[in-house]
Amino acid sequence: MIDGENSILPIVTFDANTTWVDLYRIAQPELEKPGLQKLVAALNTSVKCVAVERHYIDKDYRDTFFNFHSKRFSTPNSRCLRLHFFNRSIARAELKESTKVNGAYLGYSIIRPTKPNCIGRTLLDPVSRGPASGFAALCEEHVSILGCELKIRGFPFISQDADVTVCAQSALWMLLRYYSNRYNVYPETYPFQIGNLTKDYSVGRVVPTSGLYVWQMAEALRRLGFGSVIYTRALYRTQFDHLLYTYVESGIPVLAGTKDHVLVAFGHRSDFSITPPAAPGPIFTSQFNSALIINDDNAVPYQLLHENGAISGPGAQSSRFKFTDVVDFVVPLPEKVFLPAEGFKTVVTAILEKSDEFGVKVLSPELQKERLVLRLFLTSGRSFKKHLAERGMGHPQVEDMYRNLPLPHFIWVCEISHASHYAKHEILGEILWDATRNASEPNGWIALHYPEILVTDVGSALNGLQKFFKINLQNSKPYPVYRNNLHPI
User: How far does Cα 119 stand from its chain's mean position?
Assistant: First the structure.
């Protein structure tokens, strides 16, 4: 059924007589067959209704139109379509009240008049892609349809237009739009602006672009206020996949480069049936990682990049790449994070395994019972405190101490568990480390929490000399892992 086919907002409801072919006809000339195929592949199982918003002025496409497309002899239209997706039939009258349709809204996709790729700015709820597949960093947007305000949460997506944006610029745009949507400290950055960030050190013309090198992407991020760090598989070898996972686990989307393409990795999927190698030392949760959740501008949103390549089957939505295809990645670290992930791994393993004063063998008989499972991630001190009450922290005294302890803007956290508990998303303790310290400082940690004891450095917390305060704990219990960085999808 099609309501208002010739109106400014046709509403297409799929039924026995109305299909995606009818949407394709109505969305002419902007929607092309390759774009339709992407939409069908991404949304066919969940979308039951599409509202077609004609004459939509898209801020990202307008940026590239005025700076590039308008200078062409054959000039494309300056306006776009915006497709709104719903998981049930929507009557036009329902769009007068957001409460009636917000729960059915699955997101939107801008259809721009660019060839060969017409899919522009897109934000889809991950549920539109099928069953839950892991945990991912997500942001929110508010969308207006006929004055009806709707909310959508997801990770931004855009396809390359082959002129102003190719894979590197598209990946940068997705990462930057996530940050500007989620944190008001970061301004929106538009596609042509991204190209201009690299014009001072471009090895060719800025537009039409032929892509960017990894160091150019890192420099673009640095110019926008990030502390860019580059990792290569050739240099970090056995640590490479662990470091990539650790930053993603921290809620930091990364630019993951293959030999000839750039992806955005912003989530992961764990498989606790994986048996880590029987090597000495702790198990890191990165060893349970079976897939990364990525956006690939040449494919559909929320693909799974599996360790050993694509997995076939209904709803698999697998990437054509595998872990070893990623040869480097760029991390947009916040300004106040000085200690990188590899440095944090070094210091916490030294504390747990080698410290004669604070090691597990000295202070925690309970943790010695099984091989340790360690989960490393970065978060803000504010967010960590915000979720203390709901987690309980295993003991009331631990929660009270953390609540009253001054914390820096960002902290590294090492959650400590056993395999039997971590499979249930439970931990037994943690180490908090000041992210502005370096790995050479012998006691840069803020707090060390084992089931039997809590040790805090109240001296450093109050900007003074190191002064340890110890609380002996009794009847500690396992408690939930910290989940604010990533959301289940």
Answer: 21
Give the residue from 408, 345, 415, 383 showing the smallest Cα distance to 485.
383
* Selection from 394, 378, 307 nearest residue 345 by Cα: 378
List pLDDT tens digits, range 307-319: 887 775 544 589 9
Q: How far is CA 302 from CA 132, 255, 293, in A?
A: 11, 15, 6
Please list the residues that pair with 283 across neighbouring strands. Answer: 373
pLDDT the model gives residue 201: 66
What DSSP line would sit under 14-74, residue for residue? -SSS--HHHHHHHTTTT--HHHHHHHHHHHTTT--EEEEEEEE--HHHHHHHHHTGGGSSS
The radius of gyration computed from the CA coordinates of the chain, to the nearest angstrom, equals 24
- How far is the C-alpha of 215 from the C-alpha of 244, rounded, in Å? 17
Distance CA 235, CA 252 (A): 21
The gap from C-alpha 210 to its chain's centroid, in whole angstroms, comes to: 26
Distance, in Å, from the CA atom of 407 to the CA atom of 393, rounded to the nearest integer, reads: 16
Q: What is the model's pLDDT at position 203?
A: 62
Beta strand 262-270 with 135-136: parallel, antiparallel or unpaired? antiparallel
Pairwise CA distance, residues 429 & 471, whole Å: 14
Cβ-based neighbours of 252, under 8 Å, separated by 6 or more = 137, 331, 332, 333, 378
Contact 13, 99 (CB under 8 A): no
Q: What is the pTM of this model?
A: 0.94
The 10s digit of each residue's pLDDT in 375-420 is 999 999 999 999 999 999 999 999 999 999 999 999 999 999 999 9
pLDDT at 200 over 80: no
Q: Look at the block and give the residue holding tokens 């049936």.
A: 273
